[in-house]
Amino acid sequence: MKQDFFSTYKALRNRMRKFRPRSILRMSMNCLSQAANSKLEELQKHPWHLLLLVKWALQDPMASDRDGREISPAEFDDLRQRLFDFPERISLSPEEGSAMLFVRLILRQQVAFQRRPSPAFLREAALIGELASEHRLRLLFREKTGLDALQFMDLAFAAYVAVLDKGQRTLNTDWFRPLRTAYGDQCVDAFIRNVSRSYEELVVFCRNLPDANKRRASEFYEFTPLRRFPFLRTGDVLEYWHPMVFFRGMEGFVHSVLSEAGQDYIDRFSKIFENHVVGEVRNKGWSFFDEAQLQTLIGSEQRVPDALISFPDVNLFIEVKAGLFDESVMVAGHPEILVHKTRALRTGIAQGWSASVGLRIARKAPAQVLRASKDYLLVVTNKELNASRGMTLREMYPAGKLDYTSPEAEPYLPLERVYVLSIDDFERLMAAARRPGFDVPQFLDKCMESDTDPSALKYFFWQHLDALRVPNGWSPLLSEALDHAQERLGNALQGSIPSVTG
């Protein structure tokens, strides 16, 4: 008979409690730093388990670095095995809901540790850095970090090159010395302070996490909160936990810092993000309609997507959804919780249906729009939500939560032609569209065709991009931000910074 999660955790915690938390951290770091011969071998180390052991060890107020003893390699391996065996001892799958919801949970960590690094981690800093110096969000970032967004971008890119291009496991703080002349001690010290924690500071951070005193089965699937501080600082040495923890930490840093302002931040950022996404399609020479134009064609009382691109025989709607989207969204294991935390996605899909049907009823749109035999909807999010496509989302939701809003909606815009994709994937698709001969409607048709075959169904949109060999690519905003960061760093160092293409 399987135990409940807390009982199983408690047995593991009581074993861990005998050892010094610092020794568990060090043993975990040693395992994380061991070279692997392949990506598969790296995943087989289950780095997410090692990082979960660190979090639990540091959160336990009864564990002591003074009274505990050093953990031996054999004892540490025993802890790892016991955590690995959790699924056999307890039920970690959702009590209600589809198998696909469980798949979403178990994919969370594995995919996060497999995604290739890229300069896309600079995007949010670039968006903030484009704002006027007096803009509320740029000022807020400066107040919270002691850095301007462009300064963070440059120093984060410098660390990125050192960690991922040069493969250095540790950085001495002296590594930043050549940058101090150009950026100043205060700036460099602020960057180091913002991306690292000493052991003692890390204990405080872990114990102050939301619900730190509660144990939930969802912890087994979370991407480690240690990403907020991807470096462990020991004296003058910075040591990163794992390359992907470093990358995920840099990728989410701006969002994590500004999210502390809650709704005041996301309301402002949503508009900035929407303008960025819509700007990606506005000037491509396509037949384009923005939100205001769609409302003119349908009626101002109708909620519509942010954009429509009209192709011969295909209407492509674009809806942008930016949200706080914390880790609880990613590890929601119950259909009712998932549907609540992703209500923005349901709203976006409903807006697509409203416009799809409304255009045909009002008949004010150009002939090409009205003649289109099929519609697609891309819901673009500021974070990867593992939401897949419309049909998969409906399967994960409670029955009736993603039903068509009218009988006319399904023929024009069935859920099979609705995709939820991250900004990374959207920029990659738009970069491909800038290449001669790439046909967006044809690509989407191939995606849908693949997904109608259970053996070829893709869960993530990037799997379609990979399968059809769509090259990596980014928005002009990101490419220019990368070039400018390289140029500024090159000038500061009186030399060039290696190019990073991801």
Q: Portion of residues in helices?
A: 40-55%
Give the DSSP E fraction (strand runs of 2 or more residues): 5-15%
On the 0-100 scale, what is the average pLDDT? 93
Number of domains: 3
| Helix/strand structural class | alpha/beta
The tally of beta strands, per DSSP, is 9
Adjacency order of strands in the biggest sheet? 5-6-7-8-9
What is the level 1 CATH name of the largest domain?
Alpha Beta
In the predicted model, the low-confidence regions spanning at least 5 consecutive residues are 498-502
Instruction: Based on Cα principal axes, name the global outline.
Output: globular
**Distance separating the two termini:** 47 Å
- The second-level CATH architecture of the largest domain is 3-Layer(aba) Sandwich
**From the alpha-carbon coordinates, what is the Rg to the nearest angstrom?**
24 Å
What is the CATH fold-level name of the largest domain?
Restriction Endonuclease
Count of alpha and pi helical runs: 26
- How many strands, what sense, and barrel or not for the largest sheet? 5 strands, mixed
